[in-house]
Amino acid sequence: MDGKSFIAPNRWALAFVLALLFGLGLGVRLTDLTDLPLDFHPTRQLFSAIKARGIYYQTAPGIAEWQREVALRAFDAEAVIEPPVIDGLVAASYRVFGEYIWIARIYSSLFWIVGGIFLFLLARELLTLDEALLSLTFYLLLPYGVFASRSFQPDPLMVLLILIGWWAAMRWSRQPAWTWAILAGIAGGLAIFVKLTAAFFIAGGFIGAVLARFSFREALRHPQVWVMSALTVLPGAAYVVYGVYVAGYLGSQFKGRFFPELWSNLFFYLRWEGKIALVLGHLGLALALLGLFFLRTRQNRIFVTALWAGYAFFGMFFGYHISSHDYYSLPLVPIAALPLGALGGVTVRALTEQASGSGLMRTFIRFMLLFIAVMTSWQTRVELLSVDYRPQAAFWASVGEALDHQPSVIAVTQDYGYPLVYWGWQRVTVWPEARGEFFGAQSDEDTASRFDRLTSNKAYFLVTDFEELARQPGLEEILRGNYPIHAEGEGFVIFDLTRRLEK
């Protein structure tokens, strides 16, 4: 049905190509394994690190009591957003191997690599072998995907479960059977349980798979559709009901997420497109959309178009997050990989037809495909090795010591103070940035009034983000003109708010 493969003309060639792609994908993700998780959205990664440490320290032996107390207090202070699945898994690993934060990087990388297996299986349902291999190459080696998929957050696991759900749903669409319906429902339900936002992507894939096989009326009468839907909804619904109505910690998490007023704001769409471009690149986005027209059958086009529609509905619902957090578009990587594979297959076929009478030319084309894969991985590896974040641990530890682990500290600092919490064992109240919230109004409160209000009962004012301090000259004038320096070092200064300078 596929015709003869150009990239992998026999089983041995296919085994070699798959081993190469998965080897490159895993190898580049484990590059600089033990570096600190500050290379990609450090705030989000350290949030999970603080949660994992809190879970671990609840029962870990041999921990100093003051550290246990600080860790548990930090754990309790952070909001509960999604079930701590990856956090709990990492904490369980700490009990076996010790507290090494890079363990999370191994898990996330493995989740993404295993997801590649199911992407390839899904692609084989939709594409030729060559096209499926090109889709897999994009999924495994896209530079943004490498950085994002080794980060300490639930998204790589979520994407893995989404891919299992999509594949099982498409298998069900080809051959409706209870096995595929139940597998799709379980995988989809687990994906939503891991992170509720997966609901949009699961819904898009499942609706696409159903409509690729049945009409809407036929689908409503099919019992397997209802069972698949129920299995998909139940885990996430149970978590929401528990979190909102029983434990009460989720109620506030649903506030400030839905902003329909953004839909009429052109700047919102420009910001959103900018985040997509950061993930795929402008050219990648254009080619992925173009690739929809090169999917061979109407059923395949329905399914992949539904994946895009799920992403679009997700972005409209979570307008603030999709236009300000690029990793919210991470599921777009496997979505784009499918039409890009189809378009890439057309290109490879055109090249091979031109070189049909030249063995040398065909060898050269294969070499160039190999060259692109290897050099893309190498360039990403170079970028990962270009910055060493390890000294940051000692820096934040020194700041924590200089603060004497004083509980009443306010700070102009990076990443919401999470590096100081994790390595400095010091929680702080974060001074507001000069920039207002996205599409939000700037406060009209003057600096002096804000200072008096926020520093009430505070002992120290810490500054580590001097660029932000420079954007607030009124704050710097208040600090340097009225309060003595408690401690100062390379990269930080601490003002003593308990005393005032004599004038």
Describe the structure in your own words.
With 503 residues, this protein is mainly alpha-helical. It folds into two domains: 11-35 and 104-385, no CATH class; 391-496, no CATH class. Helix content is 65%, strand content 4%. The protein has 23 helices and five strands. The protein has a five-stranded mixed sheet. β1 (409-412), α20 and β2 form a beta-alpha-beta unit. It is globular, with a radius of gyration of 26 Å. The termini are far apart. Mean pLDDT is 93; it is low at 436-442.
Overview features:
about 5% strand; mainly alpha; globular; 5-stranded mixed sheet; about 500 residues; 2 domains
In round numbers, the mean pLDDT is: 93
The tally of beta strands, per DSSP, is 5
Strands ordered across the widest β-sheet? 2-1-3-5-4
**Largest beta-sheet characterization:** 5 strands, mixed
Q: Total helix count?
A: 23
Question: What structural class results from the helix and strand content?
Answer: mainly alpha
Blueprint (SSEs and pairs):
Blueprint: H1 11-29, H2 42-57, H3 65-77, H4 85-97, H5 103-126, H6 129-141, H7 143-149, H8 155-174, H9 178-194, H10 198-211, H11 216-220, H12 223-246, H13 266-280, H14 282-291, H15 298-317, H16 319-322, H17 332-354, H18 359-385, H19 391-402, E1 409-412, H20 418-424, E2 429-430, H21 447-454, E3 460-463, H22 466-470, H23 473-482, E4 485-489, E5 492-496
Parallel strand pairs: 1-2, 1-3
Antiparallel strand pairs: 3-5, 4-5
Helix pairs in contact: 1-5, 1-6, 1-18, 2-3, 2-4, 2-20, 5-6, 5-8, 6-17, 8-9, 8-10, 9-10, 9-12, 10-15, 13-14, 14-17, 15-17, 19-20
